[in-house]
Amino acid sequence: PAAPxxxxxxxxxxxxxxxxxxxxxxxxxxxxxxDASTASNFTGTVTSSQTALTTATVSGLTANTTYYARxxxxxxxxxxxxxxxxxxxxxxxxxxxxAAPAPVTASQATANRGANGNPDGTLYxxxxxxxxxxxxxxxxxxxNVSATFSGLTxxxxxxxxxxxxxxxxxxxxxxxxxxxxxxxxxxxxxxxxPGP
Length: 196
Hints:
Layout: E1 5-12, E2 16-22, E3 31-37, E4 46-51, E5 55-59, E6 66-74, E7 87-90, E8 97-98, E9 109-114, E10 123-129, E11 138-142, E12 146-149, E13 157-165, E14 175-181
Antiparallel strand pairs: 1-2, 2-5, 3-4, 3-6, 6-7, 8-9, 9-12, 10-11, 10-13, 13-14
C-alpha cells in the first residue's frame, strides 16, 4: 500500500488528538494505523488507533503535552506502507480546578488553583476585578499554584478567575474562583488633644 497523504491534526482536545489524511490511491477498505507518542522517535509508550477510515483519534493522552503523530497503511496481505511525515502538536490544557483565595488582607488577595491534570510547568493566567463581569481586570501570568494581587482596596469584594494555557498558546476556559472580600483598612492615626 501507499503511505497515507498529507496528514493534518483535525482536532486537539485535552486528552485526545484526531488526525486526518488522504488515501493516496489506496482502495476502499484499506486499514490505517495512527500512532502517537511523547517521543519524536516513538520510543517508550505509543498510543495507537486502527481504522478503515482516513481519520483516527487517539485517546487517553495527557493534557498540555506535546505529542508526535504518524500514520501508515496496512494492505490486505498484512504488508505495511512507509509512515507519513511526523506531526507535532500539543493537547489542550485542562481548565484549572477551583480553590478558595487565601491569604486575603486589606490590600492583597491570593488566587489559588488546582492543576486538574495539567503537568508541571503549565502557564496559568489569573484575573481579579471588583466587577463580576471583569470589565477592567488585573491579570497575572504564572507557572505557580497561586498568584498574589496587591494594591487592592480594603473592605471590597473581588471576583477571581483563572485559566490554563497550553504549549501552543491556546487558553482553556476560565474557572471561576470563589469571590472574596478584602479586610477593612486599619484606621488612620488618632491625634490626642488634651482638654483645658
